[in-house]
Amino acid sequence: MSISRDRLSGNSGITLIEILIGMVISVVLMLALSMAVKTQSHSSKREINRVDMIHNLQNTAMRMRTELRMAGYQAGVTSDMHIGAITAANLNDITFVYDTNEDGNRETITIRPDKATDSGYDANHPRIVRLWSDGATVNMRPIGDNITGITLKYYDSSGIQLADSTVNSTSGTQANRDNIRKVALVINARSESKDPDSQAYLTDQLAFQVIPRNFK
What we know:
It contains 4 helices and 8 strands; from the N terminus they run ααββββββααββ. It is an alpha+beta fold. The strands form 2 sheets. A 5-stranded antiparallel beta sheet has the order 1-2-3-4-5. Strands 6-7-8 form a 3-stranded antiparallel beta sheet. A hairpin with a 4-residue loop joins strand 1 and strand 2 (94-98).
């Protein structure tokens, strides 16, 4: 009777079933590792989107605050600079004047969401734009990208909110707009790209107030 050397030596080798079990375990481990990497990647992208959106929101607010604080300014004038300073006080846009180049003349500044007729308009990338005009020339530049909207409210020297109908460019009067002493703004922003999991844009908003430094 013959007995194999493997049996005599006690080395039976690795069976096919053991190989298959090992392969299954390897696949499971690889899938788990892949999911962990994917989750970490999505989390990183989401955080980058969120941080970029907040920075954009803060930068947009800073630019708007800087412009609005100058409303009414005119080189060589020291009083009554609020008179005729804000020429359109609407819910979603504002127009005001100030001496942007220190030549004694006040230019017109409009801050508003961009429109389909604006140069560089892209419905998928909403912006806030600044229009500058000296009466003969109009220049436009964006001051905030991925800004989905702005809301403005206006207050008098007593802190009382002025009714939209009394100050807007449709039914309001310049005399009522001359009573504006403070502007409260809310800026709404979204992320540059969609969240990799929800496939929706991240959103945030920032509220702040501006008191033009030349309004007494």
